[in-house]
């Protein structure tokens, strides 16, 4: 498989946990954020959006605009830091303590497969618990902006525009990339379903877990631009389901051993369940 980057979404109010720094909560003796970082240790780039805590060397931090603007705005902020030529990116919540490298690799393999005529070519009406009608529970426009950590320097750019920044990589050259990576192919993904734009896990009830997903970068950029255009150029508070409108999705059911990698921790009870799985 080709290389990939990873964007981890670590902001949010965590109101159902009393406003704690949820990604910093330990499961199995390690903060959830660091467990997710471990799962993507093989990524060419790891970008954490919304965290103010210490991070391993080489992990870049970013901040969505405005701070607390939601998972879609945070995704756009992380995307702006991708190295030019990156064609695949994992978009992951930072509260997935059971995620593994093998589980991410399964998503990447699924995205590499061509869409068959039997696969659902577009988003359906099913709701994931990660996709509330407005802001995701991990991010709220009411969140106070945490202080930037030491990974930021005076050379870092100002707050990133929700759609793109001066650091955005140029559009991929269709002649240099494979058909599934070229912008034209990204458009086909949303038009005829020949290629999936993203692969995401579905839980035991068939609900898509959009914040445990791997995207083709051109398709993600196009989806962000389309959604911003419908909202006056702003992604502040944009719902994840708005980002997925008309996008071809490859659904993946976890077939490996062990606990479900898509399991996220929104409550104290979720954390207790995750702890039991890690014993």
TrEMBL record:
Comp. bias intervals (Low complexity): 171-185
Alphabetized InterPro entries for the sequence: MobA-like_NTP_Trfase, Nucleotide-diphossugar_trans
Renumbered residue ranges of the record's region Disordered: 51-71, 111-185
Natural source organism: Micromonospora tulbaghiae
Biased composition (Basic and acidic residues): 126-144, 151-169
Keyword Cell division: no
Domain MobA-like NTP transferase, residue spans: 6-120
Keywords: Transferase
Name this protein carries in UniProt: Bifunctional enzyme ispD/ispF
Recorded GO MF terms: nucleotidyltransferase activity
């Amino acid at each position: 498989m080709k290389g990939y980057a990873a964007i981890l979404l670590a902001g949010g109010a965590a109101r159902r946990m009393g406003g704690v720094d949820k990604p910093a909560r330990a499961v199995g003796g390690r903060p959830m954020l660091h467990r997710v970082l471990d799962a993507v240790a093989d990524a060419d780039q790891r970008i954490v959006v919304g965290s103010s805590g210490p991070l391993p060397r080489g992990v870049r931090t970013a901040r969505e605009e405005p701070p607390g603007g939601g998972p879609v705005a945070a995704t756009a902020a992380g995307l702006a830091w991708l190295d030019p030529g990156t064609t695949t990116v994992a978009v992951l919540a930072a509260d997935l303590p059971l995620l593994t490298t093998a589980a991410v690799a399964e998503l990447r393999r699924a995205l590499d497969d061509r869409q068959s005529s039997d696969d659902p070519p577009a988003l359906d009406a099913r709701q994931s618990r990660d996709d509330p009608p407005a802001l995701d529970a991990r991010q709220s426009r009411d969140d106070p902006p945490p202080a930037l950590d030491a990974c930021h320097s005076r050379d870092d750019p100002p707050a990133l525009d929700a759609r793109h920044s001066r650091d955005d990589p140029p559009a991929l050259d269709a002649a240099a990339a494979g058909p599934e990576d070229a912008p034209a192919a990204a458009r086909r993904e949303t038009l005829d379903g020949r290629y999936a734009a993203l692969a995401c896990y579905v839980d035991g009830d068939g609900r898509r877990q959009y914040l445990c997903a791997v995207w083709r970068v051109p398709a993600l950029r196009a989806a962000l631009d389309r959604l911003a255009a419908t909202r006056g150029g702003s992604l502040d508070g944009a719902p994840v389901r708005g980002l997925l409108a008309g996008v071809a999705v490859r659904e993946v059911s976890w077939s490996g051993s062990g606990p479900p990698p898509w399991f996220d921790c929104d409550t104290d009870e979720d954390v207790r369940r995750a702890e039991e799985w890690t014993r």
